[in-house]
Each structure stands twice: as C-alpha cells, then as structure tokens.
Amino acid sequence: MEKPRITLRTRNRQTDKTTATVQIQSRSGTRPFSGTASSKFREEERTPGPGAITAGSPKPLADDAGKGEKGTGRMARPRVVREEEDGIEWGSPYSRKSRHPNGQKGVWPMVVSVGGAVLLGTLMGILILSLFFSGDAEISSRAIDSHLKTVPDPTGEVEKGKAESGGESSKEKPAGTEQESLKLPTLKSVFVQSGIYKEKSGADRMQKKHRTQGLAAVMTDQAPYRIYQGIGLQRDDALKLSSLLKEKEVDIHLNETETGADPLPVSEEDAEKWGKPLSSFLKKGNEIFANLTKETVRFLGSSDPSWNPDREKIRSSYKAFQETGNRLNREIPEGARPEFNQMRQAIDQVMQGGGDFSASPNTAVVWQIQEGLIRYALAYEKFVEALR
Predict the structure, then answer these.
(1) Alpha-carbon gap, residue 155 to 175, rounded angstroms
(2) pLDDT per position as a tens digit, 20-56
C-alpha cells in the first residue's frame, strides 16, 4: 500500500515567507505543529514513521495505541525533517525565537570580560605600588635615596656622622649665621678670700678697714658679698699671701677658679668680626696678669724683696692690649661691654701701680697691684659669662 503524502502550503505576502502547518492527531487530541520556510519554497515530502498519525489516516486501534514505540506504552514522536538547504525549520509553536538572530552573540559577555580585565589590572597595579612605595617598607640608610625619607638607624651610623660634621639642617642657613666654637684663652687663679657678708654695709666697713692697713681689698658686686685680699697663679702662691694676712688676724679661705675652658658658640660672622681679635686681646691681658701676679707674690713673700718684672714684655703686651681693646669696644656684643671695660680698667690700675712702684718702691703699692689683678680676674669671669 502506498504511504500517504502530506503537502501543505501557506504563503504570507507581507513577509514573503511560507508557513507549513501540520495537524497531528494523538490520543490527547489534535495539536498543530508549525514551521517556516524561505520564499523559495519547494514541495516538502514528509514520510511518517511507523506508528505515526498522519492527516486523513484512520485512528489507531486500542491495542496499538497502548503499545506505542517498541511496546513502551508511549506514543511515538513524529520525526521532523529539516531542509537546511532551503532554510525550512520545524519546531514547536510554543518555543521562543533566539534573542540573537543571525548567530550573533550578546553584548554582556564582552562587557563582563572587559570589566573583569580592567578590575584585575587595577588590583595588580595597586599591589605593585604597595610593594614599592609602602609606608611600612624598610629603607636602608645607605641607599641612594635614603635622604628622601627618615628611617630608623639601628647602628647609629647616620646620627654619628651628623654629630661629627656638626649636624645637617633641612634648610640652608643664610651666609654668616652658621655656628662656630670660639676658644678663649684660659685664666687660672687662686683667690685669697677673707670673708663673706649678707649685708653690703658690713662688707663696706671691712673693706675700708683692710685698705687702711695698706692691704688689698676687693668687694664683689652682688650678695653674698665677698672680700678678696690677694690672688696667685697657683695654690702655693695663695698660701704665701694667706700667711701674711693671718699675721693681721684675718680669716682666710682659698678659692680656685678656671675661666674660659669651655668654647663659646658664636656665629661665623661674629667669629670673623670680633672673635679672633678678642682672643688676641685676652691673650695679651693674661700675659700681663701672669707676669705681675708672679712678681708681686714673690716680692710680698720674700724676706729680701726685689722687684724685677719683664718690663719690655709687659709694655709690649700692654700696648697691643690697648689698641685691640679700643677697636673691640665697638664690635663686641653690647651686653658684654661693661665687663669688657672693667678688664681694661683693671689692667690700667696694674700698670699704673707698676709705674708708681718704680718711682717709689713700697709694700702698699704692691698690694695695690694685687688689687688690680683681683679685679681683672673677676671681670674676666663675668665677661665670659656675658658672652654666653
């Protein structure tokens, strides 16, 4: 018996497509099965398979309907033939069309890929930057760029280098403002002190008493008021003078001092302007002080006194002392000028006493020279403190 042929044609003039519809009858009823084909439609031949229900064929028997395909009890599905050459497709009418016609892929996968690549690149960049420029990264103090950041120096080499070089400043200082150390000549002496008073009136009375006896007596300016009656270069010199004063029933105390041992911090400009001339000035004054202190102690402590100082050296030192002092008086800091002039006046008193002794040698004039030497040593100490 010849197999039935199904040929259904429907043409849509608006879309220029042909639609073929097949009615398939099953136990549950009749259900349409549709498909589309291109405008160049040619006759489609569909041959139903075994057990398939075709249009116009008689309904299956009850026995055959229950068996289905190979006795499984299910109705055999119709076999759909697709003509790929003409673009004819058969499918369920309830199936949705593809969202991306013509085989094009969606935009979202590309957006996700690009966004992921950008995010990954950003994270990698941040990670690399954190490795090289992290605030917690340790930088060697010997690195070429170690000056860009302050880092811990466990060995102390950096601080040691700064201390040796005088330290480094983050800002350049103006010319002439860099600090220098001014080393002044050291003056060592031993004072012979006869008393200390709370009231100035009591110190004045004792000072006048000692001077009336032809002795040296110098009172300090501030309380407690001390009375100094002699001075020596060494302790032995002071002991010789104290033995003479004890004969006058005077209580004696020795006071050793050393002035100018510590250098003074001054600017580079001041060191060049008055620092070096000041050192020369004080050196000449100390030469006069040492020479005449030694000579007066020898004269007062000797049973056969003689006066034989180095007059030429003293005169030469005094001349340089005066010339340098006149120039420095206008250049040194104003706060130290009173003490500076007190030193000059003390040396003037010493030189005047030496001239008087040459004209009329006597012990009272030697004590006057001692008094001038005491004033010089006290003014020297106050002058150095004023410069600090």
Answers:
(1) 34
(2) 444 444 444 544 544 444 444 444 444 444 444 444 4
Domains annotated on the chain, with CATH: 11-93 (no CATH), 185-387 (1.20.120.290)
Give the mean pLDDT of the chain.
74
Query: Rounded mean pLDDT of 309-323?
Result: 92
| Sign of the alpha-carbon torsion through 244, 250, 254, 257 | negative
Structure tokens at 10: 């429907």
Are 52 and 79 spatial neighbours (Cβ–Cβ below 8 Å)?
A: yes
Is the Cβ–Cβ distance between 48 and 22 less than 8 Å?
no
Instruction: Please compute Rg for the chain using Cα positions.
Output: 61
Length of the chain: 388
Q: What DSSP character marks residue 261?
A: -
Between CA 260 and CA 269, with CA 263 as vertex, the angle to 5 degrees is 120
What is the C-alpha separation between 325 and 316, in angstroms, rounded?
Answer: 14
From the number of C-beta atoms within 10 Å of its C-beta (0-12, 13-18, 19+), residue 294 rates as middle
Residue 150 main-chain phi, psi, to 5 deg: -80, 125
Q: Residue 174 pLDDT more than 60?
A: no
Residues 378 and 359 sit within 8 Å (Cβ to Cβ): no
pLDDT tens for 185-242 read 999 999 999 889 999 999 999 999 999 999 999 999 988 999 999 999 999 999 999 9
Cα 282 to the chain's mean position, in Å? 42
Q: Taking 50 as the threshold, does the pLDDT of residue 114 lie above it?
A: yes
The kind and range of the H/E element at 36 are strand 29-37
pLDDT digits (tens, 9 = 90+) for 190-206: 999 988 999 999 999 99
Q: Quick check: 229 and 210 in contact, CB under 8 A?
A: yes
Tokens at 192, concatenated:
């012979």
- Other Cβ atoms closer than 10 A to 197: 19
Distance of alpha carbon 288 from alpha carbon 311, whole angstroms: 10
